[in-house]
Amino acid sequence: MKIITLTTDMGVQDHYVASLKGTILSLVPDAAIVDITHAVKPFDSAGAAFILSNCYEDFPKGTIHVIGVDSEPMINFSGSEGSFPSVLLYKEQWFIGNDNGFFGAFLKEEKPDAFYRIDDVLSNKNLFKFPTKNMLIPTACRLLLGTPIEELASPFDSYKKSFQLTAVLETNLIKGNVIHIDAYGNLITNVHQSLFDRFGKDIPFTIYYRNREYHIDEISPSYNAVPSGERVALFNANGLLEIAVNRGANMSYGGAEKLFGIRTGDVVRIEFTPRGSRDTLDSLFG
User: Fold this and answer.
1) Cα distance between residue 159 and residue 100, in whole Å
2) Beta partners for residue 35, in sequence order
3) Is the pLDDT reported for residue 209 higher than 50?
4) C-alpha–C-alpha distance, residues 209 and 16, integer Å
5) Which domains does the chain have, with CATH numbers?
6) What is the pLDDT of residues 92-125, one digit of tens each?
7) Widest CA span of the chain, in angstroms?
8) CA–CA distances in Å: residue 278 to residues 201, 204, 205, 212
9) 42: phi > 0 → left, psi -120 to 50 → alpha, else beta; which?
């Protein structure tokens, strides 16, 4: 099966996504097109990397992922090193996008199997008017049809990395951030369960967010482990700490995002209180 996925910041109210799909089907009529999302915040390459990193492993080997976020190349603009249409090979899947920080944010500390810059696209200024369609999609389709990557792109030994918030481990404390808010209003943080587990089992803790009024002191196995309308903390399928309101996403409320007034980037603190450690709430906000 010839699978190509689309991750963009184009939304669905305009013609852009339909144009991408029409181009793909014109070039590869039997292509299977999968929409990852078209709701990435405009130009947010790190956000696109986060979303794709959470689902690419569910796709079969040979899948081609097109990332149409901030996809216009930048050439020697205001002293910038520039950003160029590129191709990443990683875990036997292909990722095609502009080297604007996406690839580094997606890989984190991992190494690519191979990385390339797409040849012969920057000389035609007309292609810049819709670069995802005119630069990235043709390369993806030629790969789908079996063209060797060496005929499409040249090896390159570096790529950019978008800025990403990272959870910090301190004495009896993890300081993280909300890095994504999903369609249910659930707050997904950058605190991974492996970091949480470093403190051992059965150590009392409290999760604080927004202000001292909001806190949770247990990790639940699922949303429905608490009554409807109650706050809940859990580690999601990708191992990240998530704060939610069970069945809170409805016409009246809108989930944890609206109820707690949380935004992407806001701090989440997890205070552990092993025997002999500080255990007062005021100590957290001194």
Assistant:
1) 8
2) 6
3) yes
4) 38
5) 3-155 (3.40.50.10790), 168-285 (2.40.30.90)
6) 999 999 999 999 999 988 999 999 999 887 777 7
7) 68
8) 18, 12, 11, 16
9) beta
